[in-house]
Amino acid sequence: MKALRIFGGPSTLIRSVVKPCQRSGGLGVYSHASISCRPINQYQTRPFITDIPRRIHSQHDSPVPPTKQRDSKAITAGILAFTTAVAALGWTLNGPDLNAEAPPARQETKDAPKGKFFRLDEIRKHGADSERPWVIKGTGVYDITDWIESHPGGKVVLRAAGSSVEPYWNIFTIHKKDDVYQILEQFRIGDVDPLDLVDGCVPQEQVDDPFREDPERDSRLVYLTEKPCNAETPPSGLTSFITDTPLFYVRHHFWVPPIDPSSYKITIDLGDGSDEKTYTLDDLRTKFPQHTITAVLQCSGNRRSHMSEGSGREASGLKWDVGAISNAEWRGPRLRDVLRDAGLNLEDPPEDIQHAQFSGEDAYGASVPIDKVMDARGDVLLACEMNGKILPPDHGYPVRVLVPGVTGARSVKWVNRITLSEEESETQWQRRDYKCFGPNQGRDAVNWDNAPSIQETPVHYAVSGGGRRIIRVDISTDNGKTWDQAEIQPDQSRGNKAWSWALWKYHCGRRLEPGSTVIVKAIDETYNVQPDTHGPTFNFRGNLANAWHRVRVED
Amino acid sequence: MKALRIFGGPSTLIRSVVKPCQRSGGLGVYSHASISCRPINQYQTRPFITDIPRRIHSQHDSPVPPTKQRDSKAITAGILAFTTAVAALGWTLNGPDLNAEAPPARQETKDAPKGKFFRLDEIRKHGADSERPWVIKGTGVYDITDWIESHPGGKVVLRAAGSSVEPYWNIFTIHKKDDVYQILEQFRIGDVDPLDLVDGCVPQEQVDDPFREDPERDSRLVYLTEKPCNAETPPSGLTSFITDTPLFYVRHHFWVPPIDPSSYKITIDLGDGSDEKTYTLDDLRTKFPQHTITAVLQCSGNRRSHMSEGSGREASGLKWDVGAISNAEWRGPRLRDVLRDAGLNLEDPPEDIQHAQFSGEDAYGASVPIDKVMDARGDVLLACEMNGKILPPDHGYPVRVLVPGVTGARSVKWVNRITLSEEESETQWQRRDYKCFGPNQGRDAVNWDNAPSIQETPVHYAVSGGGRRIIRVDISTDNGKTWDQAEIQPDQSRGNKAWSWALWKYHCGRRLEPGSTVIVKAIDETYNVQPDTHGPTFNFRGNLANAWHRVRVED
């Protein structure tokens, strides 16, 4: 009798289904590199499409006029992060065209005063420090003063002020699309004086590539984009309980900010009007008990390509296969201990404190409900170590938030500010990108407030959100007619709850026909299950694709 | 244009789909009594089959010999409840034949000594207080000494000691089946002397019906069984946020124990070797802050009939339709406050305290993880009031445990003892009945330890476990091809989390064809969803049937 062994665990592991055993008895164990199955939904090509930043809105229902005033403390935090964000400019005047947002309406129509020309000398005076910064695109001149606040990359756009944006867009190619051009066009005030043109063009300057300091990365990662880096853990990294650090998936929205650990500080704003507190890296490592947990991080978009193919509908964003998930050991102080030290009364917190907002040095920001942070069993860390070593730059050096049991987007890397607030973070990553709407909801005319931000995640082989333990993994080799159970491996996780994935293996006592399908589904301790199909959970952002994993057996 | 209005909320409400509007514009609102849809899976008949008590095991893998010694404190608690259980006898020598358990093996074979006869005078000496109690069935004589401890109804079986069990079995008809007879047969020691027979039979005595003191009940309840009472909330009771108390579903395993409130006491055993503490009803009402929450209770078996019909496989237990769910307001002290008063250190509890076991006056028992009880936001009450009035007898008067967000089976009624322990309750309701195994797992040769007890429940329109809020209700009128959203009604719930169901309504702008299907599915804040179909979640106990609700439109 021929036999098949399937080694599983994370959603990824079905990718490492191995070849039918050639020895009788089915006892052969094969290397995970020997892949004979591939997900039916796996995309063969991965176009360089990113689901990167969109402009920020302080209101949610309709696009915000560029002059909209921000008045909440919460928003201030986000903006402060931007002011310290490292260099580079022109980062996404608008997001990808697959996104749902309409261009912002201007409060007053300022048609480009056609025929109005500006000399380059005058334009250069509208630099980063001027009252009204301008940029050039083509031969057009644009007053971006009212736009800066809505720019997802924050004030980094000012790097181009007084000159042309195009050298930057040659790096951030995401801008090279019609909808970006259309947004910019609203701010046009005239053109460059033909006297300054060379062969009809504005002379271009050399600009620094902000990604030039990104770290070297492992070639075994499965790269979707390089700038910013988005790369899956390869199958070989998904067969062990702990993912080797170099193989841990990378999900960046920007470049990796270079941070000097000796001058690093994290600022805590308790949101109660008290003075902000700051802590150095040394403070975090020596003033507080250090805790170690193991926890999976998973991108909300993991298996997005499966959702698109399974539903026959295109979802926007990076076309992740199964590898936007990894498991590591994390160590650092508990955030609740730091907050207590900063003055928060954990036993009787202010009623208007509902969220903890995190800002990263890279301009990224997100938040989690304060209950998760306060929970003595919640295990939210300010992680300084990963797998027993200092955090590598790609994973947040020197400090990242680690929110176990919650979608990866909330574990903010390079965190430099924490603000407690009545409101969620105002960033688009909190208020827009990481939400799921109904299958019928298109990206046009969406009311972003109609869905909650993704926090705890649903069950997905073989990990669940909220620390809910995986209790069973079901396998079907006859397209769901009958089922059998995989053998869940002994748990090696650390922490108050089941923050890690469950590894499993399955021994199929017969040879599977090439072309047949293996289905895997997991069940967690609340007996929540994965849905049968992708169509009914399709959402235009392509988040949380957790339908059964169907894997075709190859020859 | 004809129109259809669907009023929803609990799983039940789809039953109250109303007739297509006869007026144009679709604005007509119909009474909930006007039912035009019925669940496709609805059983037309409800045979009087109960999933009532089975004998208790102190070990889990294999049946326990009757003489097995119990040594854990936890078990003691369960047994103590039995000793105080109210009168009546003969309660399930074995459970229903649909259950998975094999008859217990005897440690030594005691073949009935055929030809050995006993006079009735001698048998009467083996009454409840004797060292070796005997009972009569037919003309057989049985020494049940070694059986008492394994009897699910506990020592109430002793009510028949010294006489015939048959008058009791005429009340508890569940005993009248072969597997019960077979178990009893193992204890046969001989026969009644023919000299005492009248027309070949043992003269029967009159016995009291322990159900005679059960309360009067509302005739609108949908009765599945009368003794014990198991009755669904009718559709008319499921259209309001709070279920009227008389229409709150009833799920009993025994009769309703009559309790004198003036002598009522609850005993707390902290499991740390300290003295037990007791509290009177007055103590509970006056010594502790009283809290009010709203919370759904739902039987794990709700929609079992749908699971059976949807999967084409028979599941054991009461064939609930959609009405084993109701929502009420509950009031009483928090259990954590009472435990603290009894001496538990909530900030630093003993590590070996993992579960809180509850015993009811009726002999029922169950447990929940101690974390749920300790959680300041967990809202576990010792409920003394329901919907603003004292708890009615059918719902636990004078005190029941109310564990919101957890399957109904853990909210033990008529609670008189709470024991903290390293282990779960040893009752079959904890260790066996309320678990889900894989679709492939038969009731024979099941290893009961292979599945966890149901605690927090999965998402199910329109309520979820663990206080996870319902964020969306999707409706499809074209068999799942396209979806639309129902309008979720403003939340009226009280408590720290979303313990109540979400009511919803949906206005379909077109007439639905008779025979067509309306599908409803809910999504909770963790974006867990209901599975598409019943087959892959089938389990032989028929628990947690949460696949999409499919409702056929009737003419």
UniProtKB/TrEMBL annotation, chains A, B:
It is an enzyme of class 1 (oxidoreductase). Residues 115-193 form the Cytochrome b5 heme-binding domain. Pathway: Energy metabolism; sulfur metabolism. SUPFAM superfamilies: Cytochrome b5-like heme/steroid binding domain, E set domains, Oxidoreductase molybdopterin-binding domain. GO terms for biological process: sulfur compound metabolic process. It catalyses: nitrite + NADP(+) + H2O = nitrate + NADPH + H(+). InterPro entries: Cyt_B5-like_heme/steroid-bd (IPR001199), Cyt_B5-like_heme/steroid_sf (IPR036400), Ig_E-set (IPR014756), MoCF_OxRdtse_dimer (IPR005066), Mopterin_OxRdtase_euk (IPR008335), OxRdtase_Mopterin-bd_dom (IPR000572), OxRdtase_Mopterin-bd_sf (IPR036374). It holds the Pfam family Cyt-b5. Keywords: Heme, Iron, Metal-binding, Mitochondrion, Molybdenum, Oxidoreductase. It is found in: Mitochondrion intermembrane space. One of its GO terms (cellular component) is mitochondrial intermembrane space. GO terms for molecular function: heme binding; molybdenum ion binding; molybdopterin cofactor binding; nitrate reductase (NADPH) activity; sulfite oxidase activity. Signal peptide: none annotated. Its EC number is 1.7.1.3, 1.8.3.1. Its cofactor is Mo-molybdopterin; heme b. This is Nitrate reductase [NADPH]. It comes from Aspergillus sclerotialis.
